[in-house]
Here is the input.
Amino acid sequence: MKTIKILPLTLLFIAVFAVISCVEDDDYDIPSVEFTEPNIEANTTISIIKSMYAGSLVDFTAASNGGELIIEGYVVSNDEAGNFYKVLILQDAPENPTAAIQLDVDVTSMYALYKPGRKVYVKLNGLGMDNLNGVLHIGAIQGTSVGRISATNYTDFIIRSGEIATMVPKVITPADYSDNYINMLVQIDNMQLSLPEVGLPYANASDTYTVNRNLKNCDDESSTIIRNSGFAAFKNELFPTGSGSIVAVFSKYNSDYQIFIRDTDDINFNGERCDPPLLECAGTSGGTQVIFDENFEGTTEATLTAEGWININVNAGTYKYSLRSFSGNSYMQTTAYNSNENPYEAWLITPAINLDASTSEQLTFKTNVGYYNGDALSVYVSTDFTGNSADISEATWLAVDATLPQGPTSGYGTAFTNSGPINVSCLEGNMYIAFKYLGSSTGITTTFQVDDVKVTGN
Amino acid sequence: MKKKLLIFLFGIFSIFTTYAQQTTIKGSVKDALTFDPIAEVTVTIEETKQTTKTNDLGEFKFSNNVPLGEQVLKIFKEGYAVKRYPIVVNEGQTVNITDMTLELDMTSAEELFTITLSDDELNDDTSGSDNISGLLSSSLDVFQRTAAFEFSSSFFNLRGLDSQNGSVLINGVEMNKLFNGRPQWSNWGGLNDVLRNQELSVGLQASSYNFGGFLGTTNINVRASQFQSGGRVTYSSSNRSYTNRFMASYATGLMKDGWSMAFMLGRRWGNEGFQDATLYDSNSFFASIEKKFGEKHSLNLTSIYTPNRRGKSSPNTQEVYDLKDIKYNEYWGYQDGKKRNSRIKEVNEPILMLNHFWDLSDKTSLNTNIAYQFGKIGNSRLDNNGQRLNDDDIPVGGGSNPSPAYYQKLPSYWLTPAAGPNYEQAYLNEQQFVNDGQIDWNSMYLTNLTNTDNYSTYILFEDRNDDKQFTANSILTSYINDNITINGSINYSKLKSENFAEIIDLLGGNGYLNVDSFDGFQFDELNPNRIAGEGEKFRYNFNLYSDIVSGFLQGQFKYNKFDFYVSATATNTQYQREGLYQNAAYSDNSFGKGEKLSFTGIGAKAGVTYKLTGKHLFNLNAGYLTKAPSLRNTFSNSRENHNIVSDITEEKMSTVDASYIFRSPIVKARLTGYYSKIEDANEISFYYADGVGGDNTAFVQEILQGIAKRQIGAEIGIEAQVTPTILLKGVASLGQFTYDNNPNLYLTSSDFENGRVDFGVSTLKDYRVAGGPQKAYSIGFEYRDPDYWWIGATANFFDDTYIDISPLTRTKNFYLDSDGLPFNDYDEDLARELLKQEKFDSYASVNLIGGKSWKIDDYYIGFFASINNLLDTEYKTGGFEQGRNANYRQLRDDQSNDTPVFGSRYWYGRGATYFMNVYFRF
Here is the structure.
């Protein structure tokens, strides 16, 4: 009998227990983000460790002679917009830095914890440093070079400080470009997207290839390569078409300097474009009368000079246009490759072409490209040029809207491109046509070939 | 004691033979312990299947078409053990068999069936596997019992068909979901005590309620008046899915004033089942109230409410299982010192129904029901693609994949030529995975909390499916005479299904930008750049409407030598999608109402049973059915647009089966052969695919259309009561379930130029259809001691379990290069090897069960326990090929690695598990 009374009580107890028993679910505290400053101090600098590189892998454990090497730096890179991938770039000061370095880390989405300006310490023991395509990288030692530091242990090497500084980019001009600036945050003023690329997006909408765009400097008309990832959030967006300043991480690929933006916020092209004035003639053009015709067959550079052609390196360097032939076809060609000049600027100017005895004149010529890595050729006409190479900078040069090839990036184009016709019917007197090449042995080195320069009319 | 039992089982009772004009069998049934008469006991003459029920005095009588000679009477009532009595019937005489007794079945295994089933919820959406065991109950033959109890943990599918081929009804109202056609078991889980009154028709057998699917119909009767008065309290402990279960039920029975009431409460809970961090949190409430009005009318109101939450577990590659163990689950991580599972399935869909029972006459009854079900189903998961707008209004951000088993975090990836091989990284990642290998909640919080403007890169969200379904039907049953029964019904149901994603937890951040991070498309152009907060909808938002009208008519004919039935049904199904977001990828095809679709389904079936003698019966059934595809397989990308599967048409199914049934007082056996075919079926799946649509990974919808499948096989079940206490049983299911054609395959994706790429046929013919073992065997015994204790043991063997193949790799995409020509290094022999369907190892499992019960005064106390997979065998129950390597070169290169990076993912069965149950009944 007794059991019978106990049972309901037991059951009641179980029932109460069951109803109040809870399951670990939906009841979590937000982890605290209180930050404790690490107890660590840098004992060397980015500059010093960069100077340890002597042409082959630096093993910091070996180089530390049993001690510990620790550097500090401020984060420059930002992968939030996806233009940087698995790298962390540091410079030694938020403003007026003297050295910068790149860390390869096998981690994506570092942007929150490693915001630009965040101070970090890097314990170098266990890591290595090597030059990869012209840039020093710190990473995990892999054979005789370095690879990415593993996602599993990168926080053992890279330690965050609580300090977040405001980064002030170093203002430089294209003429300042040098290896010193590699991986630094720089600002370049008076820049714009090159004219042929106006209207293009940062990268290709249809694929995820990384794309190089060319920026023109309004002051010296030099070109700078800006490299945009095909995985960047902004890759489909229109590249800003105005002119202005750009903040970017300076870098290099083999011998070419290039820059990377962290986000579109880094570009402030709100000003008017600074393109040279463009020749725009109305009406019809072209006719049966050949006013000028040069196909460079059966001639020599000396003959051309004798005929009034000007072929000149305006900076007095040794490189300029040269007469070449391939498969029985002759043309004029130049490239900044191996010129050892920064910038490299060469002009090829026709003899004076008199337009007084004709009407409806039109200019045609052909161009071809080799190893394209950016636009270097621009074509101008002038009617006030004296014909004397010393007066090139004095003359008024009007750019013409020529169709110039933008490839291939490897080898040479299989056929010349018709770059005209260009209506020059509004010009009178002596017209000069100039093929200006502006590149750099440490920048754009595209080879350009010019052929079949012809002016016709009635 | 022993003698008494003998009498119970085989006893020939005082049979008074009187001379009369009619041949009659009559008798009475009493409780074995109390000797009180038992009403509502089903009495069946086995040979003719003639059935009657006892009255309040426990009496019954058969007087029409009584078969002559040696017969077996079967008496059965829910909650009691079945009894079979051999009798001899002579023409013109009356067999009077009084005081047959029934014992309360306190040792029934029925408990366990419901456990395997609704509690485990084998229809985990990710598994693609779902079986029918929930439809089966203890009153069935040995084959079906074994399939339900012994085979279900192997994901065994009866006849190779999944649960959408079986109808589950509660009080005559169909409960299968319109979304996928499957019953949502958890909508009535934990209510075992009140779900016992089940009426089941297996296979094509005629059901009084509806036409049913090809696996049969179960009607669960929850009328308050049908429950025996009394109560029951149960406590269970297990390490399978929940760790604790508590249930209490009470029913009044039919009271003098015509009222009856039944109530039940249940709770099942646990922090972890067999797999790591699979929490279980379920409450169950049930109330049913019935009022009888006069002799002819009765009204019943039922409400069922079973909110439940379950932590899911991941299918893993073999590499992961080898590094961890078969309990490993990648979905959880520690937060605040507790295991937090990111994938929780929550089902919260109360059911209300009003049933009217009307006896139009002695022979005809009409049952009219209206039911309303509403609530939500939510499946949570992490998203790592939160963004913010930069100063130029361009979305930037997006995080890294938080999955701890992401392929780049496993050693196999670092050992591929593509990654080096980099042995240091392989080692570091292996150590990381072995020592931790769980979600890092803290780092996600840290990112969100330190983000510019605190936007959320990482969020926890839920895919929601909030249905409101109204159903009304009328079911007519008329016994024209002793030979003919007519059944008919008309049904209407209307569904509004709201589908959307909703943010559960911003993980410390303050908002989520409603823009697609992969391609920058606005999820809703009408509200561009909206920031969604916790509890707010985002990503996709649409309604699906469904209207279904159906009718059913059936005649059942019973004669001495032959029984037969014919049934027919017709259904009209209408679907429509309404987009509430205007997805920028499909501006003109996503917002507002889409095209209204209409499908017409017809069905016919017939069957005959020939009774050679009471011992030997032959049965033949055939059926044909066309039906609308489920909502799931109709809209190819319902989250983003109105698109409908091309050339969509009704699914067609045909089946035929034949059985031989042997019944002697000692041995019962059944042998069945079956053949069925499904045609014009569609299957839609979603995944990230490499190697299609350009150089980048595309999120695609794969539409496989016009699939034909064939199921052919045999079922054998035999049980022998070799002594009054010992029952031996043996079961075999031999099936071959294959694809029967080469269906067309196309992919759609917003990443494709025209949104769609056709791949022609997928050469699936003769590949095996995945879904549990195609061959299963079981032998076992039960010992029932007269002192109310019992034990049982079974040994089960499973074979022919196949992996779910990726149809895309069986298309021309596999061997064609991007230029449309075959790969120049294509090696046909190697390709054949690569595309060979993986067959899992066969395996055996041993299950034990035992229990005892006591009667103390008027109370009963029972206890039983079971151990499944006693030998702790590790076995794969299923798996699927990853769609990631869609072409020959990728698959070849991946398979040539020691451990493939994108190897198939598998489910493992549980190791040794226990279940213990104690109840108290009053």
Observations:
- The first helix of chain B runs from residue 2 to 10.
- The longest strand of chain B covers residues 698-721.
- Chain B touches chain A through 62 residues (CB under 8 Å).
